[in-house]
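Chapter review: from sequence to fold.
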Amino acid sequence: MTVELTVDESAQVRLWHRVNQFLFREARLLDEWRLREWYDEMLTDDIRYRVPATDVRDEGANVLGLIDDDAARLRQRIDQLLTGEVWCENPRSRTNRLVSNVEILTDRGTHLDVAANVVVHRFGHGRSDAYVGKYRFELVAEGGSFRTRRRVVVLDHETLVEHGKLSIIL
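The token string follows.
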């Protein structure tokens, strides 16, 4: 049995595929520690990167979080990671991200609201950790691809005690 897609469905499938390719490329750049390339090519000038506290379940809550970076702070974080200033990332951790369940929640015309699940495996200093959570993105179309304007990582952990510091970009 063959399933025929309508023109609208076909366009939705192509858009979903482009979003997946974007997120997979992002994961690869972050895993390869190509952080400046990730920043320069994949983020908007008004980027906001947030990781709410693990005890906050409201993703939109305006409360203190683990990370709440604007563009300047994120550039500073990247420079510190790449120059060895962050002692717990010297030598650098090895990471492997699994991104799944990608869903375009809303096409707002100016941007897409996108959700995905993520597991970031981190290896280094004799440890292995897994950060499990959800990604929430605002993706702005640019050419044939996108740029991220908002990036929120909601961790499913009750606490980060076992993991210790959150020194990598999730």
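Two observations follow directly from the output. Strands lie at 43-52, 65-69, 94-107, 112-124, 127-142, 145-155. Residues 7-31 form the longest helix (25 residues).
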